[in-house]
Amino acid sequence: MKSVRSMVLVSSDPVSMERGAAQVYENLKTEIETLGLSDEISLSMIGDVGRHDALPFVIIYPEATIYGPVKPENAQYLVEEHLYKGRVVPELQASHKELTGKIAWVNARKGTLPAEQRIVLQRVGIIDPENIEEYIINDGYQALGKVLSEMSPRDVIEEVKSSGLRGRGGAGFPTGLKWGFVSGTPAKKKYVICNGDESEPGTFKDRLILEGDPHSIIEAMSIAAYAVGANEGFIYIRGEYLLAQERLKKAIKQAYDYGILGEKIFGSDFNFDIHVHSGAGAYICGEETALIESIEGKRGEPRARPPYPTTHGLWGKPTLVNNVETLANIPAILRNGGKWYRSFGTPSSPGTKVYTILGNVNVTGLIEVPMGITLREVIAIYAKGMKRDVSFKVAQTGGSSGSIIPASLQDTPMDFDSFQNAGVSLGSGALLICDENTCVLDLAKVLQNFFKKESCGKCNPCRIGNERAYQILENISQGTGTMQDLDDLAMISKNLFELSNCGLGQTAGSPIRDILNHYRAEVEAHIRLKVCPSGVCPMSGKRL
Amino acid sequence: MADMVTLKIDQQIVTVPAGTLIVNAARKAGINIPVFCYHPKMEPVGMCRMCLVEVGYPQRDRVTGELVKNEDGTTKISFAPKLETGCTTPVVEGMEVRTTTEKSNEGRKAILEFILTSHPLDCPICDKGGECALQDLTMLHGPGKSRFIYDDKKLFAKHVPLGEMILLDRERCIQCGLCVRFQHEVVDDPVLHFYQRGRSLEIRTYSEPGFDSIFSGNTTDICPVGALTTVDFHFAARPWEMERDPSICAHCAVGCNLIYNIRREAKSGGKTVIKRAMPRQNEFVNELWLCDKGRLGYHYVAAAERLTQPLLRKDEKLVPVSWEEAYQRVEDKLRAEQVRLVTLAGGRLTNEDLFNFHQLNQSQNGKAVLYSQMAGGDLTAQIGLGKGSNFSDMGKGTAILVVASDLHEEAPLWWLRVKQAAQRGAILIVANARPTRLDKFANHVLRYEYGQEAATINALLDGKGKDEFTQAAKAFSEAENGLVIYGSDGLGLNGSEQLVKACAKLLVERGYYGKPNNGLLAVWDKPNIQGAWDMGFHPDRNLKGTLREADVAMIAAADPAGDNPILAQALEETDFVIVFEMFMTETAKMADVVFPVQAQIEREGTYTSGERRVQRFDIVLPHIEGPKSDYQIAAQLGRLMGLSTEDRSPVLVMNKINEKVKGYQEITYSRLAERAEQWPLISRADSYYAGTGYENEYGVGIQISSSADRGEELSLGTLILVEPQEEVATGIKVVPVTALYDRGQLIQPSQILAKRLTPQVLLMHPVLSKKYQLQDGDQIKVKVAGNEIVSGVKLDADVPQDVALVARSNGFPISSPVFVQIQRLVPEPEA
């Protein structure tokens, strides 16, 4: 690989592409060639780095200057000024300048931003995701090499166990333990599946990993397969993530070309193949057994459990299903050791967590911070405060596995156990932050509407309960609710939890449970006073 | 024997095989856990959540792994925090299940409340009302009131036809998926699917014609609500208005047990009529299922134009006469000196009829001929399926060879049960000249040319020949149990005889006979061919000659003249023809005396199925004025001839049969009515468990032993094969095959099946059609044995290239392979 003086990276997430990122790239390329700089400057398109306020953007290293939004016609000026003359172009720089460069350029400026720590996202936005060499230079496939040459499968599982890594898909199940289950089930054929069907509302962390650092998933899956004794893997990617699918397919091809996938990897006896499987727009396929059914070519519907996938998974064989973010932690853990990993986060929830911040805050986007940070810190430091300084009211942690976090819990450390003790959950890592102008009933209605639409319909409580819950919420918001409705809502929420078949159904009642727990007075106001305290619901239009 | 585990369900100690699901373990103990989506014949899915119960597991110490004890020394049980589905959870040793705690009662109530929010309360006009799982369980477990009284129950167009036999009411559907799973898992016709998701979930059919499955009617039995109904029974009657009468299906040799629901109604002019046919559980025969032909093909019983009076030919005309006069005429004829008598009997006669006919025939030294194109009933009586055989017991260790049979068409239930045996691990070898629906489940598929059936079986015996033959031969010889099922695909009587000899030889050489789940099984085309063989009737290779030379021919339940013009010519030369018939058939028209007889459903009797299970059927409908049973008429004639034939009741005829006929010693009507313990334990009282099929209260029948079972000396005859002669003929070779929905007398009156009837065509390979410049859909003139028939042409790339196929009993007088001349009919140019 040749060395260059500057690296120019153009964002290529769907929003950027829609806004003309491809043309920006083309124009930059033409201009660089015109000025004869092709030999000293590399130009590539990269995955999303979590900045959504200025798309499409262009990052230029080593200065780590972020420009955005960049229009195709800005390209000539940008190349001339920054790359030819060496002057930063302030008028094109992304807003919130103090943040500029820091998110993307962690390694160079480690420590300048409190608590920011990138393990999962260490290469995202830095390397060209379509170039395996850049991955390899940045410590890529080191862990796999180490595992295959120095470690036994048992060692690998022990190392993962010692790291204390817990599943990042929402449930927080200890990863090492799961690997141990699959490894301990004797079978000739086993599978490893990467769950990339990220569909929880507001969550897009997995997409950024898949788009920005696809090789990390291939490496992690290979390690996992070696550890549990599998030789075939599937990456199940949400149907809408076209770029991620494309990137993964390219990465897999490159890995085969380099002998990192296929037979006798790194001269060992380990063989491993990976297939990419596209989802088709069903939320439920994020549930691991529904995902397995979907790969088998059936309707994506959750299976009855037990048996669990660790013993009876894909085509009845023991199967390891891990979330993208969980897997993305693996190479670093194997490279640096479980002990190192435990130096981040809290004792019960080591490591980092990727959050997608959205809602009524000044800066939205993606951050990776150690477990145990509080919501207050996230809002103050990374989100740069609430928009227009309206006070924070409630946050939602993403999808069915998440829950509604009232402001009273904003000082609770965000880790699996602390949240569980507080009766809420970490969810998939979305942080929808809402201010005082938000009506919790409306929020619950939006979520319930989502579950109602996405229920697969297999089991009764979820198919009908969500519909009924939504109707009751709708009635209350229209001003036609009764106090009896609150009992009915509580009953539905309880029944969903106790009677449903899969995780989705069991947790689909959590929004209503949470608003009844934390905001009962506000909901009652809708019924007793026929007033929406936040002035959102259709029946009032007025505020208290 | 599987490992047994002991557990406690509602304070009751139950011991069941390991792996039993909680619902089934409870059912064995007489405890009913309500279910909607579970069916004992299908894999559980846990969708409806109705079976949620509290499950406790014996607690083990985490360190030592030993059971934790309570203070009183009993094992400590730790209950799961949440309810578990009884239909998906297998029992384990020491488990404790509580099905009636407040928690599980509340759960059930909530599930029912949820379901009812979306289910129309149209029970008063619903066909399922009165035998509906949802209705019953709501009464038992449901809330008295719904807390969700919303106007927006699901509103859809009702009664959507899924094909012309089944209707779907989408409002009533509770999305339990039983019908979808039945079609996919049980009968391998995956033509139903779920469409959409969540509340919008609905059932759709994706086949052309809609719901293209010969087992579709069963979905209406297992549907726990009134979402699926047959067009036949739609708005026809209410379940509680109907009486039940047990019967045996007369459409094929399987002998499915069924119940006819009857009622006397104003609509039918005060007559008692059959409203529907329902399966009756017999786990040895049809389990809980019926094919659509059996379920919907009962309408012939109501067909008009029944003969009601004896007819006598006077001055070239058949005129009604009294029974006495008719008897007298026959007696006179039979008493003539040295009269050559031939009795030709069809396979839908009962054992009692056949016995009496045979007695009469024998007294006159007549020839007893069976009207059938299949050979081998003597061999099946000797080395047939051993007593105690049951397809349900077959699996690993059993090798099943199916030769020259399209079981799916010839005997649907056997197809289903053979398929399931193969899925349980039985080695299945399918040998046929063309692909059939069984190939998919076969371990070995062998192809031969039509005419090479016996040679193929011989090759299996030698273990020589092509690679797949040696493999199949090896697989067949290495099994613990072996079974050969032979049919009549492309065969006439000659071919059948060669084939069955080869099959018998194979079984004898391999030792697969004289024990349960071993032996020979014939796929007869009529319900009681085996019984006819046992009573002494055999097919005749030269039926034409036999009839021509006869002085007196007694023909019962057969229409040779209608089936084959050659036989009609032969009959013209017979001096005196006596016909026993329900209808004025072509043969009856040629008769000198015609006796009107009762239909199967108007009388009692027994059939011996292909598996040699003797089963009795009851009177379903009161008989119409006039006709008598065949056995009665035969007995009357016998008495006139000085015999002591029994004419009072079939029960008494059977008592004579068991004295005289080998193998029938143990058969009496009372023994035939004995029940047997069957699993699953179904009951109409709780139809939510296994559908609305009837439990068997009328007896499961008795499988009679073979000579080999009894240890008798076998007389199999020479099993030496005659090399098939090269036929020197010109034209196109046509072979007969069996189609389920043919144009037989029993099926045509069922209008509901009209669209599914097999097209009247010559089925040929495109290569063959090219030779004759024919295209799909062409009309041709076929010259066969001096007759000309117009037929269609259908192309099928799956059939062999050198022969054309034609369905039996489908308006084409071909019952054995024959060469025909064909000529394309050119539509006349328009003027």
Short description:
Chain A is of the alpha/beta class. Chain A contains 21 helices and 13 strands.
Give a written overview of the molecule.
The complex is a heterodimer of chains A (544) and B (831). Chain A is of the alpha/beta class and 544 residues long. Chain A folds into four domains: 104 residues, Glutaredoxin (3-Layer(aba) Sandwich); 208 residues, 3-Layer(aba) Sandwich (Rossmann fold), CATH 3.40.50.11540; 84 residues, Ubiquitin-like (UB roll) (Roll); 89 residues, de novo design (two linked rop proteins), CATH 1.20.1440.230. Chain A is built from 21 helices and 13 strands. Chain A is globular, with a radius of gyration of 24 Å. Chain B has 831 residues and is of the alpha/beta class. Chain B folds into five domains: 97 residues, Ubiquitin-like (UB roll), CATH 3.10.20; 116 residues, Alpha-Beta Plaits (2-Layer Sandwich), CATH 3.30.70.20; 203 residues, Rossmann fold; 147 residues, Dimethylsulfoxide Reductase, domain 2; 93 residues, Beta Barrel (Barwin-like endoglucanases), CATH 2.40.40.20. In chain B, 24% of the residues lie in helices and 21% in strands. Chain B is built from 23 helices and 35 strands. Chain B has a seven-stranded mixed β-sheet, sandwiched between helices. In chain B, strands 1, 2, 3, 4, 5 and 6 form a six-stranded mixed β-sheet that branches. In chain B, strand 13 and strand 14 form a beta hairpin. In chain B, helix 2 packs across helix 3, helix 8 crosses helix 21 and helix 12 crosses helix 13. The radius of gyration of chain B is 29 Å and the shape is globular. The relative contact order of chain B is 0.11. The model of chain B has no long low-confidence stretch (mean pLDDT 92). At the A-B interface, helix 16, helix 17 and helix 18 of A face helix 2 of B.
